[in-house]
């Protein structure tokens, strides 16, 4: 009944909400291209703002730091998740009735709870202001979701997959490889995307642990905006530079981001 | 960790590789011996060990240490002094620290109540009208979830600035009197920061509800329509009960997000003006790294963890009743 007007109203309401959500993003975009220091929108598009911001904030260095941390964490994290997921999902693990819930608990632990001892312990062993130290923390905190995610993927596979891999007479490591590569790539891609996003977007951990030349892009952006309060256009350009890598991935892989984050929230 | 190899004692080949292979072969033949399974589980432990060790080292062990730290007074440099429960008592008696909990209560409205209400509303609109273009709205509403928090904070610093778009819009419609420096105002800074949380979280709630609604049986909707229920009745009597589980998840996540709010607040207001937007996480950061009172910081962390755990347990309990 009256379904046409209802549908129209749906579009109207959703569009108004979408405009409200996009309002801050739109003004930010406009500001980043504006010649005006206050960031007022202008039809005279200044693409050079991005170059100026890149140079003034020395993003070359901090973006490199972010990229190194992110790539290492993603690669090693996926390997750990594959090993752990295969163990808990296929092989079974001694003490898994105890170990698996303990791992799931980790998905609820927030960084705030552990940051204080982490910092002071890492300080005594010289791992503060050290990329390796930050990578270790990212990796350890990523284990719960990684194992949970890959375990579910392994368990969803039909038995026949294991039997055919078995015919090759492979050991567990070869089996893991010959099963994972052909059958689990969609799950692995999702894990890669989420892990990339979480590591790249991190602010708190980097703020506490990394200073000076070791600053990540997010922390460097925080410093930059404090120095350039009067140059809104450059600040906005810098913000877009830092947000760009994840945004581009989101544009391409929207579905994977959403499905992965939902699975992480619901936990089965 | 040394694992005694029972397989060898029983006169079987010792290679871990064969153990796992055996599991799958015999499993396929429905003759899975418990011995083969035990061996496979030991190989499994070996596989899981690197991740488990790292997790134990950087998550579990510091959790235990947090509790230990919380019983000491320590400035991060000189010797620490045992103070018993003093840091916990402080958290609930010190006016500034205690006020962080009050701020969280206000933030709950913006981080939890509003996003869930808006999420339910938009999810209902999107699922009811199976029209083209809904994916675009989903894309837009979820977008704030993937933006790094620093950029989100900057977006809104600009929105709320004295000469920013919000004030300009107010002046444009003649409401000059309402224009103000939102983030610098003792009354308005907290709701202003809270609305950033609404902006970030509601798309996530919506997507969660859409996925939940897709598993509600269409028979229920048809039955409701047969009874002549309009969109609102249908929503209240079919959709809402069907989304119980998802609402519980959303509540848990959003309430803990309010309790843990740090990045957005640190970049927009640093907890100010005064302490009007200070959350437990901001207080923790200040106590840990700005004016080191490390034991106090650890105690705040422990209280936050316990509150998060309690909230999760209570919500699960309630949602699973019946």
Q: What structural category characterises the helix and strand content of chain B?
A: mainly alpha
| CATH-assigned homologous superfamily of the largest domain in chain B | MetI-like
Oligomer: heterodimer
Mean pLDDT of chain B: 85
Q: Give the overall shape of chain A, derived from the CA principal axes.
A: globular
CATH topology of the largest domain in chain B: MetI-like fold
**Largest beta-sheet characterization of chain B:** 2 strands, antiparallel
CATH second-level architecture of the largest domain in chain B: Orthogonal Bundle
Greatest interface and its residue counts?
A: A-B, 98 and 106 residues
Write the CATH architecture name of the largest domain in chain A: Orthogonal Bundle
Q: What strand order characterises the main sheet of chain B?
A: 1-2
The H-level CATH homologous superfamily of the largest domain in chain A, spelled out, is: MetI-like
- Over the alpha carbons, how many angstroms does the gyration radius of chain A reach? 23 Å
Fraction of residues in β-strands of chain B:
under 5%
Helix content of chain B: over 70%
Order of helices and strands of chain B: HHHEEHHHHHHHHHHHH
